[in-house]
Automatic annotation (TrEMBL):
Pfam families: FCD (PF07729), GntR (PF00392). CDD domains: WHTH_GntR. It comes from the Bacteria. It comes from Dorea ammoniilytica. This is GntR family transcriptional regulator. The keyword rRNA-binding does not apply. PROSITE patterns: HTH_GNTR (PS50949). InterPro entries: GntR_C (IPR011711), TF_FadR/GntR_C (IPR008920), Tscrpt_reg_HTH_GntR (IPR000524), WH-like_DNA-bd_sf (IPR036388), WH_DNA-bd_sf (IPR036390). The keyword Metal-binding does not apply. Residues 9-77 form the HTH gntR-type domain.
Length: 249
């Protein structure tokens, strides 16, 4: 068995990390002009080549805007950023999200999962249902486990829905936010409760089995709205499954 050598961060990586941190902490704000590459190199006691390459990388991921003949400016990464930028933001925050980012993530889930539910309800096979039932069983076993383990089973179930719908990109998008998602799912499960969360999962599987996309999507959106209320009305604790059953009776 051969182990790889452990290497420290390169000077370029340290340069990028420092500029990222200054931007994400608010020390550098959108529109701020940075010193020239030569001035940065002299001030930070590193080579101009390292500064040049680091700035190109920071521009590529949306943190900086290099304008020819004008200079280097801090970009508004919420407009110029990409997936790497978002992951850098999440890492900086220790895999935790503020309420604005969580509500934005909930919107992304609607964009990803509602079409997936519609497709899966129309095309589901018995093998698909069997796969969901296995994940249901895993969640049932996790009811008495630690909350993070329970949240993990919930993540796997929701990811399976988009995967079984045939979309090969959406599961990878979900995986990119795995750590932050588990943090959010843990908060969700603590707010909603494990038993209601598990019941809603069982109901979702039944809707998929019955090819009832309208009910499945409605239940999903009610769950999202209920969790969203966590940030606006902390004492709202209605059970979305009970509400759906009452509506269907």
């Amino acid at each position: 068995m051969k182990f790889k050598a452990i290497n420290t961060l390169s000077i370029k990586e340290l340069f990028i990390s420092q500029i990222e941190e200054m931007i994400l902490s608010g020390e550098l704000k959108p529109g701020d002009k940075l010193p020239t590459e030569r001035e940065l190199a002299d001030e930070m006691n590193i080579s101009k080549t390292i500064v040049h390459d680091g700035i190109r990388e920071l521009a590529r991921i949306g943190f900086l805007d290099v304008i020819s003949r004008k200079g280097i400016y801090v970009a508004d990464y919420t407009f110029t950023g990409n997936l790497e930028t978002l992951l850098a933001v999440i890492r900086y925050r220790g895999d935790t999200l503020d309420s604005k980012m969580i509500t934005s993530l909930l919107d992304v889930r609607i964009y990803l999962e509602c079409p997936a539910l519609e497709i899966l309800c129309a095309s589901r096979t018995e093998d698909d249902i069997a796969r969901l039932e296995i994940l249901q069983s895993d969640m049932k076993k996790a009811l008495d486990a630690d909350i993070e383990s329970f949240a993990n089973t919930l993540f796997l179930y929701r990811r399976a829905i988009v995967s079984l719908s045939g979309n090969c990109i959406s599961p990878m998008i979900m995986n990119a936010f795995f750590n932050a998602s588990i943090t959010a799912w843990t908060d969700y499960c603590e707010f909603i409760g494990r038993e209601p969360t598990y019941k809603s999962l069982l109901q979702t599987t039944e809707y998929i089995r019955n090819r009832d996309a309208t009910a499945a999507i409605h239940l999903f959106k009610e769950q999202i709205d209920q969790y969203r209320s966590h940030f606006e009305h902390p004492h709202v604790t209605d059970d979305p499954v009970a509400k759906m059953k009452g509506r269907n009776n």
